[in-house]
Amino acid sequence: xxxxxxxxxxxxxxxxxxxxxxxxxxxxxxxFRVCADPANAPxxxxxxxxxxxRLAEAFGQWLGxxxxxxxxPLGAGFITRTLRAGECDVVMGYAQxxxxxxxxxxxxxxxxxxxxxRDSDLASVDRLTDPALKDxxxxxxxxxxxxxxxxxxxxxxxxxxxxxxxxxxxKDPVGDLIAGVKDGTLDAAVLWGPLAGPRVKDDPDLxxxxxxKETQGPRxxxxxxxxxxxPEQEWKRELNSLIRRHQDEIDxxxxxxxxxxxxxxxxxxxx
Length: 271
What we know:
Elements: E1 32-36, E2 39-40, E3 44-45, H1 51-63, E4 67-71, H2 78-81, E5 90-95, E6 102-103, E7 108-117, E8 138-141, H3 145-152, E9 159-162, H4 173-183, E10 188-192, H5 193-200, E11 206-210, E12 221-228, H6 233-245, H7 247-257
Parallel strand pairs: 1-4, 1-5, 8-9, 8-10
Antiparallel strand pairs: 2-3, 5-12, 6-12, 7-10, 7-11, 7-12
Helix pairs in contact: 1-7
């Protein structure tokens, strides 16, 4: 979550500093200015290869504006040093409900899931309460919602945790967990869909199974929005209008990237 867990990664970039006094409207009228992490694969990347980069380019086209980035690593101070400082005007991929920003309407909903080898005896597992997960090394991001459920159902000793809040210009915790599944060091990894789905989409050895059947603990699905400054109602409404009018095109970009999309209640995949 962000982030709840930035998430969720991308997602909740926490800010440790107090907000400065805000000007009513700081947004640029000549550029679509995006606040982003330069190494948050597969979401945002300095080279433009992330799916949030592709979405930003699409929004720029719909607005008739060129895209410009303010790059800053996700973590403490992200919102204060970027959006609230007036350096940029929108944060892509922001989990709904955080108080540091004003959320637009959500433009997709995704879900946590399990990455396994296709030939593994765990390939059919679709819930964290499955007894087959017992006594198996399972990767998970520390502090994420599924880590809480795994601890509740007795999988704590089997968890191999990784920290999402690192400088991803030099470390790649999600990539390391997926590599562990691929080489057999881990039997599975429980990860946020937008972080894992695109990475395994074209891998013949790996699969991502959404966790759509969990009935206890934190929910496994989250609605993803854009974050804008709190006072900027008109800007939020303009982005909401674009989301509403271009939802099919947004969905197509996300599906092409391999992001698992679910309905707003996290009950079923949207094909």
